[in-house]
Amino acid sequence: MAGNTLGQIFRITTFGESHGPGIGIVIDGCPPRIPLSPQDFTQEMARRRPGQRPSDSPRKEQDHVEILSGVFEGLTTGAPICLYISNRDADSSPYKILGQVFRPGHGDYTYFKKYGHFDFRGGGRYSARETAARVAGGVVAQKILEPQGVSIMGYTMELGGIRAVHMDLRAAKDDPLCCPDRSASKQMQEALDEAKRQGDSLGGIVEVKVVGCPPGLGEPVFDKLDADLAKALFSVGTVKAVEIGAGFGAARLKGSENNDPIDPRGFRTNNAGGILAGISNGDDIILRVAIKPIPSIKKEQDTIDREAKSRKITLSGRHDVSAIPRIIPVLEAMVKIVLADHYLRHEALKRYDSKNTP
User: Fold this and answer.
1) Predicted confidence band at 97 (pLDDT cuts at 50, 70, 90)?
2) Residues 6+ apart with CB under 8 A from 343
3) Superfamily for 5-356?
């Protein structure tokens, strides 16, 4: 199975399945002498951990991160960093039916067509469980970005068709659904409760804001910063669309409306979303990510089996009602990983230029 690696200098490879012994990530290209301990992962892993809200999967995982390599005496050494997270609460019994029947909206059908033989327990390799490793990788990436003054924050803009109107990002940090609008958050929770009662699920939109990104990150033509960010975000299984800046709204504007005027203090508007010609311009990077409803629902659905015969399927097992808000630290992590990679690429270019400038 190819396609498990992302990045050029700061390079990650994830491994493991939902119901295997554990999952993990190998990070190549992390600079040496960066302080790193298991405790550094606690807060971010807790944000993604299941079982904290009524709409979450009741699966109980502590998500303790073990550092297997690349760290000595509390500092990174420049060698590959291997982080491992044990699976301690996997229950494969509800998934036996998936050995013959495909879940609508899930990866069962396509994995079967591609590989024939694969681990379908809890979604296996294509389970959201894999994203815990990405969050751990994001913690290491943030260690590179933080000294440069770069911060990344995601928040819920929409859930179940209910949209945040009043934007208070400070409130989002303490809100159970990471929503910046407390009134909208209450309505979202009611919608989640109703969907759970009906055995259904909900999608939504997450916005991710990057503050303090220096200008100059991005590698034209095929490694544009926005292209790499979009790829990284799309690699998260539940993502169906990514907007940057004005996004689809730019298609309805005139050039005179969409262009961001520049004065000596900087850009007066930010329709570009902080990226021009694939290179960061120093303004805030604004990304919006569309999250589809969780495909594992308790309602009866039409499907087929491996012999292409019509079947009905009703799922049991433990599933979230919505990927939001647990997906937010995952999306933040993917943005951190891409920015760390491009920052190190840009620094390498600057060092090369300084050595070759007369």
Assistant:
1) confident
2) 144, 145, 148, 150, 214, 217
3) Chorismate synthase AroC (3.60.150.10)
